[in-house]
Input
Amino acid sequence: MNKIVKKEILSENVVKFEVEAPLIARSRKAGHFVIVKVGKYGERIPLTIAGADLEKGTITLVIQRIGKSSKKICALDAGEYITDLVGPLGQATHIEKFGTVVCACGGVGTAPMLPIVEAMKKAGNKVITVQAARTKELIILEREMQEFSDEVVIMTDDGSYGKKGLVTNGVEDVINREKVDLCVTIGPAIMMKFVSQLTQKYDIPTVASLNTIMVDGTGMCGACRVTVGGKTKFVCIDGPEFDAHQVDFDEMMMRLNAYKGIE
Amino acid sequence: MATTEEIKARRSESWREELRRNMKNKERADLPRVHMPELDPEYRSHNYEEVNLGLNAEQAMAEAQRCLDCPVPTCMTGCPVEINIPTFIKNIERGEFLEAAKIVKETSALPAVCGRVCPQEKQCESKCIHLKMGKDPVAIGHLERFAADYERESGKISVPEIAPPNKIKIAVVGSGPAGLSFAGDMVKLGYDITVFEALHEIGGVLKYGIPEFRLPNEIVDVEIDILAKMGVKFITNCIIGKTISYEDLHQDGFKGIFIASGAGLPNFMNIPGENLAGVLSSNEYLTRVNLMAAAKEGADTPVFHGKKVAVIGGGNTAMDSVRTARRLGAEKAMIIYRRSEEEMPARLEEVKHAKEEGIIFLTLHNPVEYSGDEKGRVTQMKLQKMELGEADASGRRKPVEIEGAIDLVDVDMVIVSIGVSPNPLIPSAFKGLDISRWGTIIVDQDSMQSALPDVYAGGDIVRGGATVILAMGDGRKAAAAMNKALSSL
Output
């Protein structure tokens, strides 16, 4: 049982929680995820850790209401408990001084990007964050991103905030303007697919953090398998980050829909 | 370890000598083996009720009479945890059922579990004297289950005696059969035991793997509860090597660590179409149904209810998967196995039960490709027909492809159950362990001690995929060796 100490509504469908988990707060690194489950017969779902406070012994989780289980978690209030929480899981992000790093994120993928932006900056990189959403109200964590990025580019589909366009338009503008050494992308699978296609065109190494279906999150079930470079990999233990140019995003999207309609 | 003297001393107790005098060996040997009462196959293939119903007292006492109470009980050599088999059976014969349960619990932490899932035909029963005389072996497994069930149902569950606490902290990584067996033995010796479990429930494979119709979770919980009463502490949602490191354990004062993390990584065949939706590992399928209760009302975890289900493999897990699929409404539930039935590793009883429940066995068939629809869901499998050739390294005849013999079979779900590999998570977190090329932890065969002196390991993380009872045997061996090492400090 892990207590929720703070709840914040970031946008219409996105909630931020600070959850008591001192051991995870101590051992987690950028890129790690946790598995959460609410209720005795709740579903185990993976969530990438968006931050931690060592003093308070808490971790930050950002959740988007999409399915039955995420709605159930989002309905919890401060003072209530997450029934089961385990982690940190997966491989941490590979952090080093690359030079200029573009962090391309969209939707709820912005939250797990935050610790990566922070770590990349601390490693001495020039960090340009391109964050995108459908409309102004859905842009989250902008202030936090500003704090650790050298520059934040906001993109909205409807032009209600920042520049009008998709995340790929924002990334391409940066590429055309200056030399980019690495791109990191987190967001919906379709978004990562297009970011990956774009950077491949410019031959820029790109890392994507995948969020697939999982059950145990420790390598036991294989629900999260993806094809990377023609080989089957488990997102939970080999990932969640992979060379985006090697990821079969079409297969991944198809597998994400495996349980659609029977949930 | 039971010595010959102990076995002899118990055998020469007066009540036992009298029992032996009551009936001649010839008469005992002529008694027919008891038949385990089972649910009707048609009825049970639509629900999760336990298939085997257990013996009643009368049946158990009659079966116990078949045991000749041999002076040198070979059956015990077939038991990885060395249960004093004749002593518990003779207690059943004289009607002392609670005493029988106590005897079993002297060396087994999970009697009700073993009585249900052990492959007795390959263990204790394979060494029974009756076999040498061309008769059926004593139904040791059924009797073990009877003793454990009788005790549980009587409400008079005995908690084994515990030595005075020695305040030495020991960590157990994983709460499956190896970990629980180790914990049970060590807590009896007075150690301060904490079991760390990665999942949200205690029990490991007993909970996530073995289905309710073969091993009800509440039976497992009763056995875990006894361990808790004996003083074993259980911590769920904690991954050693992730949540807490090896160094953290040292800092927290743990003097010994037993790794029993299991073989968590499902194998796939790496054939085209294997990543289509609807193709999944038996681990995923069984975990969804057993641990997550996906088929139950009110559970959030989804599971696909296939109508035409193929399970690839011929082991116990394959049988569990295919019988589960049948219960979830599969009209056609098939076992696809590349060798013949004779080579199948599954327990005889599982194969028999599966057949009774209408499972189709496509032996000497091997999948080579899956194809799907426009949504990426599996719809068909391509099977290569096989024939048996020469014996291979395992002594089994090797399956060879019959050129050009291909079958196409429609499916809407495929469950791959061709074994597991050791989970790399733990071995990679303990620097200094010797790891084999299969990813298993290398230990000393007798002591189960690893290359790190304070770390012992057992079960599937050492064996790469075995049975509940072999894992329990490892736990017992490791406990004895660790106790010896710590006592000599």
